[in-house]
Amino acid sequence: MGILNVNTFKNNKFALLKNGSFSKFDRNGLGSWLNSIQTLFVGVLRIWSIPIVLMLSVASGFTTYYGLSHFIVPWIALIITIAIQSIIVICSLEIASIHWKANRMRYLSVLLSLLVAIAASITFSYFKFYEISQSETIHSDRINQIRQDVNNYLSVILSTKSKILKQQKDELDKANQDVTQAYFGTHAQISEAQKRVVGQGPFWRHYNQLYQAKKQEFEQVEQDFRRLDDEIRKLQTSLNVLEIDTENNHRLMVSGLQEVELKFNRLVSNAGVLAPTAPILMTYVQLMQGITPSFSMWKGFSLFAFSCAAMVDFFTFLLSYRLEFTAPGPLTEQEQELVFECIRQFSEFRINENDELEMVIEKTEIERARRYSDWSRMFAVGFLLSRGFLRKIDDRSVEFAPNFYPLIAERMGEQLRTIKSQASPKPVEKMVENLASVEVVE
Description:
There is one protein chain. By secondary structure, this protein is mainly alpha-helical. The chain folds into three domains: 3-121 and 301-323, no CATH class; 146-295; 333-437, Arc Repressor Mutant, subunit A, CATH 1.10.10. 70% of the residues lie in helices and 5% in strands. The chain has 14 helices and six strands. The protein has helices spanning 7-19, 21-27, 30-68, 74-97, 104-184, 202-240, 246-271, 284-288, 303-323, 333-343, 365-369, 375-387, 405-422, 427-434, and strands spanning 3-5, 349-351, 357-360, 390-392, 397-400, 439-441. A four-stranded antiparallel β-sheet has the order 2-3-5-4. Strands 1-6 form a two-stranded antiparallel sheet. A hairpin with a 4-residue loop joins strand 4 (390-392) and strand 5.
């Protein structure tokens, strides 16, 4: 086929490497692009956690203040509420950075403060969520209580009505019996001369007059009770539709109850019967008013209200706990340089059970023997602990916080780039230069 000179291939290959086309593709490939998106997404989520925590604290603070203000002076309740929410956020951040082995007393004190603050927040927030979740139930209970009171009163009315009608009927039957006995001359009070004399004599006319009067009275009582029954039906109608147009139906119910009470009391007074006491119904304002928080709400415990109150504080604690993994503030260039150089002086590192890089900050035996002064590197450790880039495990070791890895990676990357720039030509470029003297012969 001929001779293939690779000088052209060499020149083109060298030009591509020199222009950085290959390295550019490697650095800006799909994997790098996805990693950049993921890093941006995680960073946005961490930043977004801050306003979410603030909004949750405000929401929990509002419900806590609402419940607390019903027991103490409002301005004192506001101060206590701010203190409670601040303690929840601060202690959540603190407890995320404290290890049990590092400082047990501090861990327990922070945990106790957190639990007390959450318990106080949930306790007083429960009242507001109870009011929201149970408002319809309480309104229905009030209406049912009104219905029960009215129905109990109406039951007593019907029972008393039955007694009055029975009494009137017995008296009418007695009067009818007297008329019959007077007609046949068998009445006990008739004289001996008139006994066994059948007919409508003076004695019969007297008892007949009493019977007619009693009969008329009985019919009048029945008629009055029928009118009372009409009023009772109107009262029950307004009572049954009390949920619909509550204001007007409540007014009709109250006026209907007053009318029933007035007519019934007149009837029983004429019959010589003691009238039952009418119920004292709550007003429309009392029926529609909200719930006043009190500890009696815990007697009718609402799991839903308690869960809502606990959920808000739980989310506040959880997000505040996660916020500890973000740096409270960036390090300056000089601080980064100082920290990196001091951290490099430690020699004992391992991956611990938290999947974090753990570092022993104690002197080694050789350093103790040489009386090595580790002031500078211990200063760096204390500085990073106070800034949240390190977390103390125990008295002799610390671990890297997640926000510390990017700083170290950036510093190591800069050193690697410096080393590469000072090194000899790349092996690939050497290989391309060697191709200049190669010819392919077929």
